[in-house]
Amino acid sequence: MTEKLYPTPHINATPDDFAKTVLMPGDPLRAKFIAENFLTNAKLVNNVRSIQGYTGYYDGVRVSVMASGMGMPSIGIYSYELFNGYDVENIIRVGTAGAIHEDLKIRDIVIAMGACTDSNYVGQFEIPGKYAPIASYELLNKAVEEAKSREGVRYKVGNVYSHDVFYDPSGSAMQFAKMGVLAVEMEAAALYMNAAYAKKRALAICTVSDHIITGEETRAEER
What we know:
25% of the residues lie in helices and 29% in strands. It is of the alpha/beta class. Strands 5-8-7-6-9 form a 5-stranded mixed β-barrel. It starts with 20 loop residues before the first strand and ends in a 12-residue tail after the last strand.
């Protein structure tokens, strides 16, 4: 780095406070839950705007978890700062998504190989054409191998649709479903673009929280 990029307006910490790998749920309460239930010796390292960030250990490996908030502008800020100001190498989004594929069921796992989007987030990079945001193959492959090894885990690998709008009267998600897209969510595309620009690694792993085709959904407490 040629300049000091920390602390930022959104993260009051030093690079040493974060592990090289950060798990990133959307909800700060999910970050807290992960830290308290899966990490040992977890320490709160950021709480600006109540976007809780923790660092601890999982099976002896140092890991951080911090919320992203909702939508591409929000995860765009936090992932940019972690990649470029805090020397983070890997960000793994662990969130929820709405299924738009008939083979998926509630609580299935979607591992996002690519992320279609209706967002203009890519415009900032001034690319003279269309850009296809994709996951790190290294992280994707490890996630798939882990999912294969876990009995009872249902998962699919493929495209997601990172949508700017939660309440969408146009029903655009179902147009993407015609192209085999698995699920709709709101963050992966921006995360993948930031990772590519910073020459870092990113992956989105989403649990199906609701099904747009069948109308099934989980309760807020479950999510």
